[in-house]
């Protein structure tokens, strides 16, 4: 069956089952009433058996395990309506006396109950499909979306079933005929049908997605959690996003963005700046994925005029530097006296003075002075050496992204304290912090000289001191820090003016601009950008939790209102409008935005 027809057929069939018993006799005469009622019953049975099959399986499995789920409430209302209608219409068909027992009022009789059951089934299936299809409609995501509905259904469905039995027994005991008394009890099950509960959480997530736009995505809920949306870590309780008081901005480019910047070369006497850049870019490209040196690798690769030579035997010491063997084919020059190209190989080191000192290389005073001057200017500085001698100092700008300073202000306005955890030297880190709106004199606000492991340890230290810490970082460089946080906010690259990902595909660490979508079952918020997007993510998460609770409360009120209407004698078909319209109202909160 084509997808469009497969999507349209169930609601059309459900409406046919609801309207056929009324339209048939009205158009063709009362003689057509029994055939139309029987046809409506068959159509409704087909809808429940096909569209409602997954829910029936879940309800049956839950009953075998002694649990009540949202599907249990939907199945109880649908099967009770179908079963009673089938029994009454069968008796009316085989016994002339039975036909007289069918109530004349179609609203209070069995003829419209199959259509109501079909409509409830179709709406229940539809609202569950409005979850998060972009995340991959996995069983885990669907189970998480049902968590809240299942929990409340377990509280509402058993009392509703008892109320249905009590209403039926009371009506029969007061002399009401059974063909009228039983539908009165079925109306209670229909009114308590938890279809709005199935729609509540997906609707709240869609509202959060709209609020986040293209830059913030909240995670899908995890199954079995009491937290309505799943962004509490294993040690976190409900309300974690509201308790976050510290945001650790971790990593080499969390404030600067991923633009490479301009490299300034301070070459030693007689050294060729082009050769310096070429060899430094080559060995920097050998840094491990996720290394803090990848920022320098991007800048150096963009600074080289021409191809970057390959590096062999690359060896990185995290937080110190990287070394490798770089070989180039050199064409003979006018003064070489030869006609054959030669291979020139250099053992290259790139890092700080301490890293070079470990290899017996001393930075000469002129280069050391250039390095101190660049550090005083707030630049990130690396020394490049080859063949046992320091050759040049490389200064990389550490200017903040234009949106970084407003973003830091937004974090403070959101009631959280930003903390910068960076691998930069002390001077560069404090200059970057001051330009971004952080207090460079505050030892708690700026933590310089931290490699990835030290950043994760700093996060753990903040938590030991009693802070509730959210870490905002690129998972490619700071997975350990994200894992150590109370709340993880994965940062994707900053958006650019043209909407494309930053940088060029021929960079050494080039990778496609990631889609800002948490993995199914992930507890991490995803944001594309910097501090402003982190602040927005926290505010959206807080509002989403409140919105989930508001939607759930509305769904519970609808269930109670449906039961009250049924107890007051409202026909089941009229009562069915309460859960159906409530679910459709929540589900029609607008299409979710895709990132």
SSE topology:
Elements: H1 3-28, H2 33-50, H3 53-64, H4 70-94, H5 96-101, H6 113-128, H7 139-173, H8 178-191, H9 195-212, E1 216-217, H10 240-243, E2 246-250, E3 264-267, H11 273-284, H12 294-303, E4 311-317, E5 321-330, E6 342-351, H13 353-358, H14 365-376, E7 380-386, E8 389-396, H15 404-413, E9 417-421, H16 426-436, E10 446-447, H17 452-464, E11 469-473, H18 475-484, E12 487-492, E13 525-528, H19 531-567, H20 572-575, H21 577-587
Parallel strand pairs: 2-9, 2-11, 9-10, 11-12, 12-13
Antiparallel strand pairs: 1-13, 3-8, 4-5, 5-6, 6-7, 7-8
What does this structure look like?
The protein is α/β, with parallel strands linked by helices. It is 52% helix and 13% strand. The strands form two sheets. It has a seven-stranded mixed beta sheet, sandwiched between helices. Strands 3-8-7-6-5-4 form a six-stranded antiparallel beta sheet, sandwiched between helices. Strand 9, helix 16 and strand 10 (446-447) form a beta-alpha-beta unit. It starts with a helix and ends in an 8-residue tail after the last helix. The model is unreliable at 132-137, 230-238, 496-516 and 590-595 (pLDDT under 50).
